[in-house]
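does this look right to u?? manganese (II) ion version
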Amino acid sequence: MDDGLLTIGAFSKACRLSPKALRLYDELELLRPARVDPDTGYRYYAARQLERARLVAWLRRLGMPLARIREVGALAPSAAAEEIRAFWARVEAETAVRRDLAAFLVDQLTAAPRKDTTMLELRYFAHSDRGRTRPENQDTAYAGTRLLAVADGFGPAGAPASSAAVQALRSLDTEEVPAGDVLNLLEEAVRGATRAVQDVAGDADDVGTTLTALLWTGSRLALVHIGDSRAYLLRDGALFRITHDHTLVQSMIDEGRLTPEEATAHPRRAMLLKALPAGAPTSADLRLHDVRPGDRYLLCSDGLCGVVPDARIRALLTSAPAPDEAVLTLITEANTSGGPDNVSCVVADVVETAA
Ligand code: MN
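got this back:
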């Protein structure tokens, strides 16, 4: 045996990876032995491989998939550090979606009837505009007693795609929503919307739509979201974005590879990572929102939020007295800023019902 080589047993003890794991990592080319005895097949490792082996062990403990560990292992330390940071940012973003779902379920299973007898309802308005440059309007905006929705279609049949997605949700607007059943109801509605968009798209793989909708349960708003249309909440003068864009640039922002400012000028900023009908229906984000009287909700397509900065949206939302004025002012603002895309807005105010 060469000087300085360790048997697999000794190496295993030193790096705290089992011999079985070491054999697997050899096969996966994560960590090749320094030498394999041609007669016995025994694996031998060099002491200098310990550092690499320990890194593999730590990355396994972090939950990084083996294929990704192989990539990280091939990088220089600074690039490897960047990869680990990006991996973890992604884990946290995915965990946030699961956290919301868990909170939704807990909420749904424990929800008690509201103690106060204040009845709340929505005052709403929806409008969609072609904008200044696009030949047709492929957006769909809708607002009713219980349902608020914006869909931004793309591809040759983008307009019927966005319309079909919203139409598939329309039954939610007229049905009484059983409080304990919101999650299943939304899940089923997204399934229906997916099928409807599939029917429109046919064999075309470049046809689809975003879908961002709020469903009023009588005391709360359930959010369903897929794509890069957005939902905002204006509460006490502050504007909160309550959706996460399913876009390439947002995932790069999440991973620290891009700043929000750089994203606004990124050549692939329109690239969606999720939309209907692509992907499983469960890939839509679902969340339940407690509302307060005085809350103002905004749903919009990227023809607004890609053109008008959040601060300006906040100012216009704040100063408009009623939903219809808010919607029309926002659309006018997008158009006076060039109107490069179809622009759709839904604004809904949570108000106490007159007794
Ligand atoms: Mn758009």
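Residues 152, 301-303, 341-342 surround manganese (II) ion (CB under 6 Å). idk if thats expected tbh
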